[in-house]
Structures are given as C-alpha cells and as structure tokens.
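Q: My labmate handed me this sequence with no annotations at all. I'd like to see what the chain might look like in three dimensions before we decide whether it's worth expressing. Could you predict it?
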Amino acid sequence: MGEQYVPNDVQLSNDGQQIMVITGPNMAGKSALLRQTALIVIMAQMGCFVPAQRARIGVVDKVFTRVGASDNISQGESTFMVEMTEAASILNNLSERSLVLFDELGRGTSTYDGISIAWAIVEHIHEHAAKPKTLFATHYHELNEMERTFKRIVNYNVTVREVQGKVVFLRKLVKGGSEHSFGIHVAKLAGMPPSIVNRAAEVLKQLEQANRSTDHEVARNLGDVATSRSGYQLSIFQLDDPVLEQIRDEILHIDINNLTPMQALTKLHDIKSILTGKQSS
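A: Here is what I predict for the chain of 281 residues:
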C-alpha cells in the first residue's frame, strides 16, 4: 500500500509495432501492464478520461484476454484445456480493430509443448490478415527469437535490478528481451524455507551449466523454424509432387464466376478422383 504506480508507454499499430512480446520475472509487473492497457482502452471507448498524460486510442471493437490459471471442475476441463479453449475462441474471432492480451499462454502443459503452442499462436496473429494489436506476456524467453524474423514483433521486458543478492522490481517497461525469471528470488520473498531456496539455487546452477553449451544451437534451430514459415498456408501449391501439381492446375483453371453448382460438384469429383487414383467415368 502507498507504493506509487509506475507509468509505462504502450505503442501498438496494425502495420508497425503490432505485437509486443513482454518478458520479465514474476512480480515484475507484466500482468499489471496488460490489465492497465485493457482498462484504459475500455475507458476510452466509453468516453471517460484515462489515467495518462497523453493517449491516442482508436476504435476497438473487441478486447480479448487470456489471463489467469484455473480449471473448470464442473465441465471436467483441466487448466490447460480452459486455456486452449479460450485461446481458440480469440483466434477464431480476430478483427483489425481487436486488442489481444495473452498472459503466460502455454504454461499449463510441458515446457516444449508450451513454447511450441505459444510460438505458433504468435506467428498466426502476425500472419493474420487483420493484424490485430497484441500484448503477449511470457516466461518463454525462446520467443525473443521471433523478433529477428517477424517484422511487426518487438521484444520488451519489465526491468529489475539485482543488488547484493536481492531483487529490486523497477516496474519499468523497456525495449529488449529478458533471459532471467528470478523465480528463486520470488520464492525467497514468499517465505520459502532457506534450505529449499539454497538447494534450488544449486540445482539451477547445474542446469544452466548443462544447457549453456546448447543455447546457441537452440537459438539457431528456432531461427530455422521462423524462416521456414513462408507459405505454410499455401503449401499445397509448393510441394514437389505430381498429384498435387495436377490438383493445382485443376483449381487454377476453374472459372469460379461462371461455375454452376452441378459443374462445381463435377469438378470436386474430378479432384477426388485424382487423389484416389481413379479416372472419372
């Protein structure tokens, strides 16, 4: 109580800085930043004054949020299932005037599954025709690699300072990714027994030493993942396969504007025949 709220600038646009990937430790203020942005946007749509020195906010038709972690016992849905259901609803209803806020997406499953899903969702939003404005807070530092390849993705982090083994939360949003979560420091602040904190620090040190040699390889592999995305939605036209080439030619030569329903069914039958290896009668 009594702590002064630290103001932060947020700039989003469809064609410029469309997606802000925000990293930083627990308790640094990532979730507060997302909530602040959502509340200010909603207040502006109502015609209210907003708590900012200056604000330029366009019309927003939908504010989508995926925050928090809870299961749905009555429906028999796990935390991860709830998370994916809400994310799917968001991705199926995007528009160019949408504001999308994701907080720690993918944490309800294993690390590699979570990173993969988070990466694919951010990539989908970037490649979506609507280019919706998005804030994506995450602990998956691997997502910082996306900035290298996706021109409308920009990395940010909520800063902290380590002083004599203690973490000071500065609550300030700055450009660039973060590579440290300070989870053990937060556990210490929460009152975790010192023996557990010290043991966790030892295990972390060993894990970091074991993984340090592979960090460069992981970054390179993620870079390959990003560059290989080109044309993933139109891969049927790019695969070197005679059958797919024949189907492509069939589709490209269809005069859609003058196609009757019966002709469309006949053409669909012809394409199916190509796939099954049978000739039309």
